[in-house]
C-alpha cells in the first residue's frame, strides 16, 4: 500500500525495507527479457531503465488479451466488442487515477510525457487565437494569456522534453524563458531569485534524468504561488520509484504533471497528463478531430468536456490497458518498498564508485537525495568508450547527454555514462557493472 504522503521536500522509505534476494529472484522471473544473453552468451545486466524499463509478463499479457478478445474502437459503435473496449480503456483511466490519487476526470492519455508537456505549452499558444477563450472565466483567461513581458521558468537540469516546448512557446508568443540554475553538486539554486512578478508558468522536473536528484519542490512551488504562476511537474523519472500522490493532493500547489508508460514498466506509446479540472476546462485543445468534439457543423465545432477534449482520434487502448497493469504491478509491490530498494541500489553504486578515484560521479553524494540513477565520467575517456567496454561485458548503460545538453554544459562535461535502476535490478548487477568498469583504466591507460 502507498502512504499518500507528499513528495515535495524529499522522500523517505521510513520503516519500509527493500526486497530480499529470494523476492528479487521471483520478481525478476516476471520479466521475460531479463533471461536473455547478449554479446556471445554473456548474461544481460540491464542498467538503462531510466531510458526505458523492461515489462513484466502481466503487462504483455494485458495487451495480448485486449487484442485477442476485446479489440475494437472505443467510444464508437454499439456492439459488444466496442462496449468491452470502452470499458477496458476507461478502466485503465480509473487505475491511473488511483495510482496518482487523483480524479479520473483529470487524467488525459497521451503518447508519452513529451506530448503531455507539449499539450500544455500549445494550450497557451492556442489561447491567443480569436475566440479560443470564449466563455472561459476571465481570471483563467488572464492566466493563460502569454505575451511580451511575461515569463516562463524552467530549470537548468531539464530533459529536452521540458525545455524545448517552452522555448518554442516563448518564441511564438514573445514571452521570455528564464531558468533556475544548478549548483556544482547537482541541486537547484534558489528559485526565488528567478521567479518574479512576470512569471506565468514554472515547469520543473521532479527527478533529474541525469543526476537522479530528487528536487525539493517546496520552495519552487512557494515562489510560483507567491506570484500566481502555474506549476507543472515532469514526473517521468519519479513515478517508477516513488509514491507521488502528494503532488496531486488538493493543497500541493501543483497544477499538472506528466508521466510516461515506458519508464513505468508499461508499454511504449502511452503517457499521462494529470491536470486540475479547472485548468483542463480552460485550456484550449492541442489536437482536434474525432472523439474530442461535442457538436460539429460545417461552420464550426464545440469540444467535449475534459478529459475527452484532449484525446482526439482513436486512442491507444491496448497500451492504456498495459499501463494499468504496470501501475497495478508497482502498487502491489508497494511503492515504499520500491523506493527502499532503489535507495539501497543507489547507495551500493555510490559506495562502489567512491572506491574508484578515477571515476567522477555527477550530482548529489547523499543517496537520500537521489532516485534511480547515477551518472559519472572518467576524465580522459569519452563516455561512449566507457559504454562500449561495459557493453562488451553484457552491461547495458546509457551514454551521451541523455537529452539534457544544457545540464552537461553547466557541469562542464561533454557527456556522461549513466547507470539507472528499476525494481528488478540486483546488487549483484551493480557488482558486475563495477567489475566491468575496472577494465577502463587498463584499456585506456587511466591512472587507477
Automatic annotation (TrEMBL):
UniProt entry tagged with the keyword Transferase: yes
Occurrences of domain Aminotransferase class V (ranges): 45-433
UniProt similarity note: Belongs to the class-V pyridoxal-phosphate-dependent aminotransferase family. Csd subfamily.
Entry-linked InterPro entries: Aminotrans_V_dom, Aminotrans_V_PyrdxlP_BS, Cys_dSase_SufS, PyrdxlP-dep_Trfase, PyrdxlP-dep_Trfase_major, PyrdxlP-dep_Trfase_small
Keyword rRNA-binding set for record: no
Known cofactor(s): pyridoxal 5'-phosphate
Catalytic activity annotation: (sulfur carrier)-H + L-cysteine = (sulfur carrier)-SH + L-alanine
Gene Ontology MF annotations: cysteine desulfurase activity; pyridoxal phosphate binding
EC number: 2.8.1.7
Full protein name: Cysteine desulfurase
Amino acid at each position: 500500500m502507498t502512504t499518500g504522503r507528499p513528495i515535495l521536500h524529499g522522500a523517505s522509505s521510513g520503516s519500509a525495507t527493500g526486497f530480499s534476494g529470494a523476492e528479487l529472484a521471483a520478481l525478476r522471473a516476471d520479466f521475460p527479457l531479463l533471461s536473455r544473453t547478449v554479446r556471445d552468451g554473456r548474461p544481460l545486466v540491464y542498467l538503462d531503465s531510466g531510458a526505458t524499463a523492461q515489462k513484466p509478463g502481466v503487462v504483455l499479457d494485458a495487451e495480448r488479451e485486449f487484442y485477442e478478445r476485446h479489440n475494437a474502437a472505443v467510444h464508437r459503435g454499439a456492439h459488444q466488442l466496442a462496449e468491452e473496449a470502452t470499458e477496458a480503456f476507461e478502466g485503465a483511466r480509473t487505475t491511473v487515477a488511483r495510482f496518482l490519487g487523483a480524479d479520473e476526470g483529470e487524467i488525459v492519455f497521451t503518447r508519452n510525457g513529451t506530448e503531455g508537456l507539449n499539450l500544455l505549452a500549445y494550450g497557451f499558444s492556442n489561447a491567443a487565437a480569436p475566440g479560443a477563450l470564449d466563455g472561459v472565466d476571465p481570471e483563467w483567461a488572464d492566466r493563460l494569456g502569454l505575451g511580451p513581458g511575461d515569463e516562463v521558468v524552467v530549470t537548468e537540469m531539464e530533459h529536452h522534453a521540458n525545455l524545448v516546448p517552452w522555448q518554442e512557446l516563448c518564441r511564438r508568443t514573445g514571452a521570455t524563458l528564464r531558468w533556475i540554475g544548478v549548483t556544482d553538486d547537482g541541486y537547484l539554486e534558489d528559485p526565488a531569485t528567478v521567479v518574479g512578478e512576470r512569471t506565468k508558468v514554472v515547469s520543473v522536473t521532479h527527478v533529474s534524468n541525469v543526476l537522479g536528484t530528487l528536487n525539493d519542490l517546496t520552495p519552487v512551488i512557494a515562489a510560483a504561488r507567491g506570484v500566481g504562476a502555474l506549476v507543472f511537474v515532469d514526473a517521468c523519472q519519479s513515478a517508477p520509484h516513488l509514491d507521488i500522490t502528494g503532488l496531486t493532493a488538493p493543497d500541493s500547489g501543483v497544477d499538472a504533471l506528466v508521466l510516461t508508460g515506458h519508464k513505468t514498466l508499461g508499454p511504449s506509446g502511452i503517457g499521462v497528463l494529470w491536470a486540475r479540472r479547472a485548468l483542463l476546462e480552460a485550456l484550449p485543445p492541442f489536437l482536434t478531430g474525432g472523439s474530442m468534439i461535442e457538436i460539429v457543423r460545417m461552420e464550426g465545432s464545440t469540444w467535449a468536456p475534459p478529459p475527452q477534449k484532449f484525446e482526439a482520434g482513436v486512442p491507444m487502448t491496448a497500451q492504456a490497458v498495459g499501463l494499468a497493469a504496470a501501475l497495478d504491478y508497482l502498487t502491489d509491490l508497494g511503492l515504499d518498498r520500491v523506493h527502499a530498494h532503489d535507495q539501497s541500489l543507489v547507495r551500493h553504486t555510490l559506495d562502489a564508485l567512491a572506491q574508484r578515484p578515477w571515476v567522477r560521479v555527477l550530482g548529489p553524494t547523499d543517496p537520500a537525495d537521489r532516485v534511480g540513477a547515477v551518472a559519472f565520467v572518467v576524465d580522459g575517456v569519452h563516455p561512449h568508450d566507457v559504454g562500449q567496454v561495459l557493453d562488451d561485458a553484457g552491461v547495458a548503460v546509457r551514454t551521451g547527454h541523455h537529452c539534457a545538453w544544457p545540464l552537461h554544459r553547466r557541469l562542464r562535461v561533454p557527456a556522461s555514462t549513466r547507470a539507472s535502476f528499476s525494481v528488478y535490478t540486483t546488487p549483484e548487477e551493480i557488482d558486475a557493472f563495477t567489475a566491468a568498469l575496472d577494465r577502463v583504466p587498463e584499456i585506456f591507460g587511466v591512472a587507477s
